[in-house]
Specification:
The structure is a single chain. It contains one helix and five strands; from the N terminus they run E-E-E-H-E-E. It is mainly beta. The protein has a five-stranded mixed β-barrel with strand order 1-2-3-5-4.
């Protein structure tokens, strides 16, 4: 695992896990280059469910593993695609 400094990611919030009723229980982030980021499960990470199918700008600590990346989110801002970051 490689720890990196704080970063900002502009991404679409997508569902990746559901309960028996079909409700989203966990989400991932998909950046414009189809780079997928797992979301660290904390209060901010769970709050992302409210932004499902929306573009967000998140700030947090990026943790890089061999085959995937996880972001520990500290701040979420809803973002309209095409807006200048």
């Amino acid at each position: 695992m490689k720890n990196e400094a704080k970063t900002q990611i502009l991404a679409l919030v997508i569902s990746c896990d559901w309960n028996d009723k079909g409700e989203t229980t966990r989400v991932k982030l998909m950046a414009e280059e189809e780079e997928v980021y797992e979301v660290f499960e904390n209060d901010q990470g769970r709050e992302l469910i409210l932004y499902e199918r929306s573009w967000v700008l998140v700030t947090g600590k990026l943790l890089t593993f061999d085959s995937f990346k996880v972001i520990d989110i500290e701040k979420i801002s809803e973002h309209k695609r095409g807006e200048i970051v």
